[in-house]
Structure formats: structure tokens, C-alpha cells
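Many introductory courses stop at the sequence. We go one step further.
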Amino acid sequence: MGPTEIIGVLIALAVLVLVFRSLRTALIPIVTALVGVAIGVLSLLATTSVITMDSTSITLSVMLGLAVGIDYALFIVSRHQIQVRQGMDPEESAALATGTAGGAVVFAGATVVIALAALAVVNIPFLTVMGLGAAATVVVSVLIATTLLPALLGFMGQRITSSRVPALARSAARAERRQADPRRPAAARRWATATT
């Protein structure tokens, strides 16, 4: 990974910390995406003795692998986190989240793989190698999101809801108190009232 990919991962981590309000939970999609990219890129590098592959193909595979790896993990992690907060057993929740959101992950991954593999249709060797290499990395990312990720979520147990970033936790608590106040209408209701 080059400096631009590292900057992208750090920005993604910052956004995930803001969304999940927990560093531990934010790290899960990042770690699984990095594992998927590592496996995908190492697999591509193993084929370089047979196939001519330039650095652009590897760079595209890294970028797409990180993007879809984080995205696909978000589907499952957010579903799992909600279910655990509602009192579901973490292992059962990991299985259910993968069973429900995992279907969307597989479908989205298949769509991306088909689109990338379609680059082979133009019959330009450079584009064919680039598309198939990136498609292989996306396949690995889908497999990681549907196998390793649920195992990590089940292993973490209740810790998925703890380890909040203190300043963000206070902000979330204030927002929850404001939403719970029956005298204060929710933002959606205020917006609907203002626009109609």
C-alpha cells in the first residue's frame, strides 16, 4: 500500500469512528478489508510469473478491495451492533446479521465482479488483466465479509457495544435524551411540518 491508500484508510477510520462512536467497532471493517486486500494482492502477485501484470492492476485491486471490503463489512457490522444493543446474544446476532445482510453483500459483490470481468470483453490484454485481477480481489473481500467477519463479531461478544470514544459517547447520549423528550419533536417531524 502506498501513501494515498494509507491516507484513505485513515480517513475511512475517522469516518467510521464518528459513525459507530467506538474505535473498537470502527476497526473491524478496516481490519477485515485489509485482510481481504492482503490475500487478494498476494494471490495476484503469485500469478505474475504466468501473467504479465503492471502496477496499475495491483493499485486498482488495492483500492477496490479496500472500498468494497469496508463497505461490505459495514452492512453486517451495523446490523449486528443494532441487534446486540437490543439484547440479542452476540453469536446468534453475528449469524443472523450475516444471514440477512450477507445476502446483500454477496449480491453486491457479484455485481461488481461481473462488471469488472466484463472488461475482458473488449479483448485488450491490459484491461483484461486489470479487470480480472480486481474482480478476484472483490471475490476475496466478499468471502472475508461472510466468513471472517462473523467470526470476529461472535468472538467480540458484548464488547462490540463498549469502548466508546468518550466525547462522541457524550454527544450520542445528549442526542438520545433530546430524541426521547416527548415535548421536543424529532428532526424528521420538524422537517415534515416545515415543508408541508
